[in-house]
Amino acid sequence: MFPSKAGFNIRWLRKLKTVCAAVLLLPFCVVAEDGDLVRPNILLLVAEDMSSRVGAFGDPVAITPNLDRLAQAGVRYTNVFTTAGVCAPSRAALITGVSQIAIGAQHMRTSSYPGPAYRSVPPAEVKAFPELLRREGYYTYTDKKLDYQFSGSGSSSGPFTVWNDEGFGTHWRNREGEQPFFGMINFIVTHESGLFPEWHFPKSAAHLMLGLLHSYYRWGEELVVKPEDVLLPPYYPDTPVVRKDIARHYNNIHLMDKQVGEILQVLDEDGLADNTIVIWTTDHGDGLPRAKRELFDSGIKVPLIIRWPERYLPAYVKAGSMDQRLVSFQDLAPTILKLAGVDVPAFMTGNIFAGEALSEEPRYIYAARDRLDEAEDRQRAIRDKQFKYIRNYHAGTPGAMHLAFRDNLDIMQELWRLQTAGELTAEQEKWFTLRPEEELYDIQSDPHELNNLADTPGYVDELVRLRAALDQWLAKTELQADMPESAMAQRYWPNAKQPITPVPDMTFNRAKSLLTINSPTEGASIGYQIDGGPWLIYKKPLKILDAEKVVAKAVRYGWQESDEVLWKM
Fold it and tell me: Is pLDDT above 60 for 227?
């Protein structure tokens, strides 16, 4: 039972924070007058496929009033990087706190492997952080987007133990009483496919998708950003087609901003804003050519905002401030756990970048690119605050490649047309030229990463330093570096068949009225129901008093869940 927000003395509570952290290991607990702990609710809002095209991050074209207000009341993190330039590998790192290359989740997407489909099977100890929150009493929910590689892309395709609720109609209002909640809400309207031309989806198909998938296609919406308004980076040609698609991207961002505003309004109306930490970010860079799927900053650098309620505000934080520390997407999981007062497990390699218990700022962030839909590739990158080093394992091939999905974009077709006609400038042509083994960029003087310094004598020291640092990281992280994806698929799903988790065992100690549930499968998560109630996460033996029946099942990440097993009093 968690008390309401009424009757708090904020100054008194702040004095108790230090004691609370030291004694109870809950650095963000708040103590009510009756002595109960009040843990923060946490909302993680994740837009798809966009870089820092937000007014509060200095973009003069973006029309994002709700995000701007959120930033004014919170902290803007300006050096945040995803671990990949594309969604599924990036989301695998976000949800686990581990780089995707450490858990066999690096290829985009396991279900689209041209060979037999498979799912990643992470090491036994790896768990999605919402499951860890759920184990500690949080109500966890998300919408229809999963896409963690050990799940499918849509709801109800992943381990049933991660979320209390997922799919359509999920909401914090569905929880029990004032149970603390963690919600992850995804904004599909900014996705790359929202730029596909209308002809790509017949209206009847679009209407079907709208009903079934909450579609993000918004043809006919008012264009608040006009093509003539946009500013073009030097790697894009200035043509009407290019301007049209970038303007549409801005307009989709504007729609996403409205959706964020609606959620924050309901949070206020429900009286929850004073007890909810709001985090907004994006799953990787822009859904545009030479951005999405790339390891350039246009593909992996993302905006991030945290708004703290007054009662949980760290002493060093000022509303409206900017934080320039290096942040990786694998840092989100341990940071959110720490904000909730939940122990961070040893398997997580991310840092804690926000709150009272900050990790030391890392010197580097790392990123990876592997198979992209039907196209083989492999790149690794390391970046500090000034330099980025990229290693190309498919040197001698162009950065740009034909991908059936991306080629639906008018802007991509325009780039192919101009490249074939020889009408691109030298800067615009670079993406289409053959890649060297190594790339080195001075981000401060060359933010668009167009001038490769790898062969420039004056930068040998930086090249050697970053090359060695990347090697050191890969040696301890990329445990399956030389394994072809076909071998990985065979390892996870032998003979192209998804393994089935064995049913758990249940043992009842009648003298103590304790029911113990065990799984013979290492790393399997166990869920149970008592008398047909909601599914709960098993942590320790259950005290059984007058329950009629207990149903349990188990799931190993990446495997099919077990059959249910029934125990009766």
Answer: yes
Mean pLDDT value across the chain: 90
Stretch (H or E) spanning 91: helix 87-96
Residue 35: burial class (beta carbons within 10 Å; 0-12, 13-18, 19+): exposed
What pTM, to 2 d.p., does this model score?
A: 0.91
**Token couple for 372:** 């992209």
Q: What is the dihedral of CA 370, 304, 94, 351, to 10 degrees?
A: 110
Q: 1 pLDDT band (50/70/90 cuts)?
A: very low
What is the pLDDT at residue 478?
87
Q: Does an H or E element contain 24, and which?
A: helix 10-24
CA distances from 446 to 289, 424, 508 (A): 19, 20, 66
The residues that bridge with 415 in the sheet, in sequence order, are none
C-alpha 550/C-alpha 428 separation (Å) is 63
Lowest mean pLDDT among 222-226, 269-273, 526-530: 222-226
Contact 547, 530 (CB under 8 A): yes
pLDDT tens per residue, range 87-146: 999 999 999 999 999 999 999 999 889 999 999 999 999 999 999 999 999 999 999 999
Confidence of residue 65 (pLDDT cuts 50, 70, 90): very high
Residues 6 or more apart in contact with residue 43 via CB below 8 angstroms? 182, 183, 185, 263, 267, 276, 277, 278, 279
Give the integer Cα–Cα distance in Å for 185 and 47.
8
pLDDT score at 548: 82
Active-site residue, 29 included: no
Return the closest-CA partner of residue 1 out of 45, 39, 55. Answer: 39
Query: Of 26, 87, 105, 390, which one is the catalytic site residue?
Result: 87
For residue 221, pLDDT beyond 70:
no
pLDDT, residue 224, reads 95
Q: Are 238 and 247 in contact (CB under 8 A)?
A: no
Alpha-carbon gap, residue 179 to 188, rounded angstroms: 28
C-alpha to C-alpha distances, 210 to 133, 188, 394, nearest whole angstrom: 32, 12, 40
Q: What is the maximum alpha-carbon separation in the chain?
A: 83
CB 142 within 8 A of CB 108: no
SS (H, E, C) 128-174: CHHHHHHHCCCEEEECCECCCCCCCCECCCCCCCCCCEECCCCCHHH
In angstroms, the CA 325 to CA 327 distance is 6
Strand spans (E) along 335-442: 365-369, 379-383, 387-392, 438-442
